[in-house]
């Protein structure tokens, strides 16, 4: 019955591609011994299931008429041995199936996870997180079922059918042909009821996906806060209720379709059995067939109809299963646009010297950085790159120097920081660290020498200690307390009942904005980088917290090169140089006093902020 839930419409017109099959075999190759054992168990089990009717035939035709107690004893012992053999085969088969399936799931998930996390940041800005989760969960499980369930079902049904029909033909070929005449009447209901069942199944899957999306969006902290702030719990309940009601109604219809199919197939099977009763019984009455053979036929009839019906859907089963593999391979085959070039070397003992030389940047075409099926319906991928984001950027940062980037939103400040860390690659020009093109340095060593504190500091739903040790897994508690002290948040952590083991909540929502930022700064300081990027790192702090952090950073940044991005100009007054970015171009350069004297964009921004902060 499970094969009826395969998506026949989704594979109509498709062919089993040799390349995909070869890749599937490659994925299964590490488990070839287990697969061989699994198939062997299925074959033996299928053959074993054909023996009990023969024992029954011998009981009726030989042991009882001849009053042969010895044969009767052997038949009883044989029945028990077959039951034990069947039980052992079933256990071994299930163990091998689980070993193959779970091992395949593990390998595919780890490969997918590792591959996806190495894709460029641009990939994640376009991709639906839920779609990626589906590849890691549903499609990987579907691929596993293709190997275990589909393979096992096809082999078991094929062997069982071949063995059963061979024995039936050997016993009485005319009666065997009569039982097969009923087969079309058996398959027709499955073909007729199958499509509506498949449609309902697809609708239920889609509705469940929509419900899961709603749950994920509304039950994270940000979503829950938005619902509460806008006073929409009743409307949210009603919307969710509509989706849940459709799932409920589909479930009821699916249950009824399934029951009708079960009843109809049962009636057709009963008709086939009745044919054996009447024809076989008539032959037995005429002494043309022995009673035990008729009894064996009755048992065999029950064993051939279901495998025959399931094998008629084998192509749909195989194609549907391969679709899951194709969806997994689609992600694995997507090449990262930012990789370590052959011969890339590790940056050893970085000094923190940075230079941008005639750097220009535009975002690559969507087709180069994204997969259409992961973006959702109706999202076509353009073949053209974006407009120019940065144009001919030139500046340098000497070891230990602080350079600030200011300018209106969208000017390109954060993009400059992303180019330094190779979250993006330049379109033209060169970004250098210690005189080396960052594209010649391994990504791991480049990023290990750069510490970043972003505007929206991200913390994992783990303890404070675990979040800090994400920077340095081997850090001791003393190291953690030292970094917390430098970030001016050690007293707060010490006052918490669980101290370093305090769980910060999803994305750190159990902490205030300022506390999150200071924990992020502590994490950066623990890393002890040669280059520091502060991207609006003090934007969530009140005046008191900001002054504490500024004092902490002033000491912590000594000897480190720093690139500070700020809208709040008070945070960059002490910068060695300030670069004013507008429209992707550096339009002003100087320190605070020099830029004020220019009476340009920086001076205008300063006056605007002073006006906003002046008392009424």
Describe the structure concisely.
The protein is an alpha/beta fold and 616 residues long.
Q: How would you summarize the topology of this molecule?
A:
Blueprint: H1 8-11, H2 18-28, H3 32-48, H4 51-63, H5 69-117, H6 121-126, H7 129-171, H8 173-181, H9 183-218, H10 221-229, H11 233-285, H12 291-311, H13 314-332, E1 354-361, H14 366-369, E2 390-397, E3 402-406, H15 413-420, E4 428-433, E5 436-437, H16 443-448, E6 450-453, H17 464-469, H18 477-486, H19 490-495, H20 513-527, E7 531-535, H21 543-556, E8 561-565, E9 577-582, E10 585-590, H22 592-598, H23 601-613
Parallel strand pairs: 3-8, 3-9, 6-7, 7-8
Antiparallel strand pairs: 1-2, 1-4, 4-5, 9-10
Helix pairs in contact: 3-5, 3-7, 4-5, 4-12, 5-7, 7-8, 7-12, 7-13, 8-11, 9-11, 11-12, 18-20
Care to describe what's here?
The protein is 62% helix and 9% strand. With 616 residues, the protein is an alpha/beta fold. It has two domains: 2-332, ABC transporter type 1, transmembrane domain (ABC transporter transmembrane region fold), CATH 1.20.1560.10; 354-449 and 529-613, P-loop containing nucleotide triphosphate hydrolases (Rossmann fold), CATH 3.40.50. Strand 9 and strand 10 (585-590) form a beta hairpin. Mean pLDDT is 81; it is low at 1-11.
